[in-house]
Design a protein that fits this description.
The complex is a heterodimer. Chain A is 39% helix and 27% strand. By secondary structure, chain A is of the alpha/beta class. In chain A, helix 3 packs parallel to helix 6. The N and C termini of chain A lie far apart (35 Å). By secondary structure, chain B is mainly alpha-helical. Chain B has one domain: Orthogonal Bundle (ABC transporter involved in vitamin B12 uptake, BtuC). Chain B contains 12 helices and 4 strands. In chain B, helix 7 packs across helix 9. The longest helix of chain B is centred in the N-terminal third of the chain and has 36 residues. Chain B is globular, with a radius of gyration of 20 Å. The N and C termini of chain B lie far apart (49 Å). The chains are: A alpha/beta, B mainly alpha.
Chain lengths: 236, 316
């Protein structure tokens, strides 16, 4: 397993956000986390990337215990996150934002190669290359956040609501890109409100409710699960 | 009001003001850099400067120099300048770093509220200044005549001294180098990333603690250079030298737009010049009062300072 989360609890002050979550992501998989607002999806992502310290439990990445490791060191190990709210650097150009994604890397030729790849995946970013990140539209910022997260050549890509704020046509496109990135060899852990898209594209998925995992299965199984349909897919 | 005084001395007042402003600008960088990254006013920065004003004097003392020494030869002057600058830069840089590691870092680790940082900053400032006060028996210390101010350029009835040129040129060169570093280097980009979005910066692999330490160090280095220039220009230092000029430097940083490097330069030069005009107009006892009237008026019309925040800019 590339990522193993074992019985992790996490609290914001006195508010318990995760009540003992366990989940695995295998190498080469696309795994989705679905659930309502406040279920703990983004909190799980922050625990994995290291932005939030966990109270109990362990997180192992690539066989190594990273539970207490600083966030910036996890990037070097191969974890990369496109955060909730996108986290663009508003005063940097699109290009500088992308270059920030490669901050831990030194090989200029490889970085240029990956810049080209990001511009190929998101031609819109190429058009906006010299524009400040803060002046982009929501959808463009989303593309920039995903493109930037790829710039570290991660083993595990954490995507928090990649379809947030995107027009329906762009949602299709961004999921196509996620599948493409995965086929190029990157493992993906995905948080989504858009359960329909997420389940139809993911190999496996977990359903979170109030800080607990209540269901897991393959994407197809959960798509056909009456309770999941009822709660998350908007069909009875 | 003495308009004829201002008009007659306009040239000399401008030049004196620019030199004074250049020192203020170098000093102001430390406030603006730390604020840009941490949203913290590091009041102890004035004592980082203070220690620099003493560091070069101590090293010059090792060479047997004091305020009564004869001016050195050209070779001696270059040597003393080099070691004096080196000593001040090292001591001020290390002092800034020490304040960060001992006083602020433990607070950050505990997620302390902003007020705790403010009180710590004021406390660290008073502590160092009092320590110097006790060690020097609150006496002022004279500066050896390393560089004798000599007029080298005359334009009309305005003369410009070698020392004034040195101060202004050195300040501009250091500002330019710092600007290139922040905007052009990988580490500089890391600093801007932490300033604009600390969480995102961590997700890019930026070590926040290291960036913060670097920012304190850079501010300290610039204060060290300002300290040597101050010694040479004023001719004496005292345990409260940092406090008095620190208020000017902090004012300049806010005037230019705190968090903005170019703003610090603009604010420093503007403040230096306008203080001298005010002194010409109302008498030198009004120098500091004038700078605060100016600050209040400018902030009324431009609350974020003349150039606004750029290192930090609004967080996403």
């Amino acid at each position: 397993m590339l990522l193993e989360i074992d019985n992790v609890t996490l609290a914001y002050g006195r508010i318990q956000a995760l009540h003992g979550i366990s989940l695995n992501v295998g190498e080469g998989e696309v795994v989705a986390l679905i659930g309502a607002n406040g279920a703990g999806k983004s909190t799980t992502m922050r625990a994995v990337s290291g932005l939030r310290p966990v109270s109990q439990g362990t997180i192992r990445f690539d066989g190594e215990d990273i539970t207490k490791m600083r966030a910036d060191l996890r990037v070097v190990r191969g974890v990369s996150q496109s955060p909730e709210g996108r986290g663009i650097f508003p005063g940097m150009t699109v290009r500088e934002n992308l270059e920030m994604g490669a901050y831990t890397r030194r090989n200029r030729a490889e970085i240029d190669e990956d810049l080209n790849r990001a511009f190929t995946l998101f031609p819109r970013l190429k058009e906006r290359e010299k524009q400040a990140g803060g002046t982009l539209s929501g959808g463009e910022q989303q593309m920039l956040a995903v493109g930037r997260a790829l710039m570290s050549r991660p083993k595990l890509l954490l995507l928090d609501e990649p379809s947030m704020g995107l027009a329906p046509m762009l949602i299709q496109q961004i999921f196509d890109i996620i599948v493409e990135i995965n086929q190029q060899g990157t493992t993906v852990l995905l948080v989504e409100q858009n359960a329909q898209q997420a389940l139809s594209r993911a190999h496996r998925a977990y359903v979170l409710e109030t800080g607990r995992i209540v269901k897991e299965g393959t994407g197809a199984e959960l798509l056909n699960d009456p309770a999941v349909k009822d709660a998350y897919l908007g069909v009875a | 009001m003495d308009f004829s005084g201002l008009i007659n001395d306009f040239g000399p007042l401008t030049v004196t003001g620019l030199a004074q402003g250049a020192i203020i600008a170098l000093f102001a960088l430390g406030y603006t850099l730390v604020y840009g990254v941490l949203r913290l006013i590091n009041f102890a920065h004035s004592e980082v400067f203070l220690l620099g004003t003493y560091a070069c004097l101590i090293v010059w003392g090792w060479f047997g120099l004091d305020q009564n020494s004869a001016p050195p030869s050209v070779g001696g002057m270059l040597l003393y300048m080099a070691v004096g600058l080196l000593a001040a830069i090292l001591v001020s840089g290390l002092a800034a770093l020490t304040v960060e590691v001992i006083a602020y870092r433990p607070l950050r680790r505990r997620n302390a509220p902003p007020l705790a940082f403010l009180i710590t900053a004021i406390g660290a400032s008073l502590f160092i200044s009092e320590l110097v006060g006790v060690a020097t028996h609150r006496n002022q210390k004279g500066v050896p005549p390393i560089i004798l101010a000599k007029p080298v350029v005359t334009i009309g009835d305005t003369t410009i001294t070698n020392l004034q040129i040195l101060i202004i040129v050195l300040a501009l060169v250091m500002m330019f180098a710092l600007d290139r570093f922040i905007n052009g280097s990988r580490l500089g980009r890391g600093i801007r990333a932490v300033a604009q979005n600390p969480d995102s910066a961590a997700l890019m692999g930026v070590n926040k603690s290291r960036v913060i330490a670097l920012v304190f160090l850079l501010g300290g280095l610039m204060a060290g250079i300002a300290a040597v220039m101050y010694d040479l220009k004023i001719g004496v230092t005292r345990y409260d030298a940092g406090f008095l000029l620190g208020i000017d430097a902090f004012t300049a940083a806010v005037l230019g737009g705190i968090g903005n490097l170019r703003g610090a330069l603009l604010g420093g030069l503007l403040l230096g010049v306008l203080q001298n005009y005010a002194a010409g107009l109302f008498g030198s006892q009004w120098l500091h009062a004038a700078s605060f009237v100016l600050l209040v008026v400018i902030l009324l019309f431009r609350p974020t300072g003349l150039l606004g925040e750029s290192l930090g800019r609004a967080r996403a």
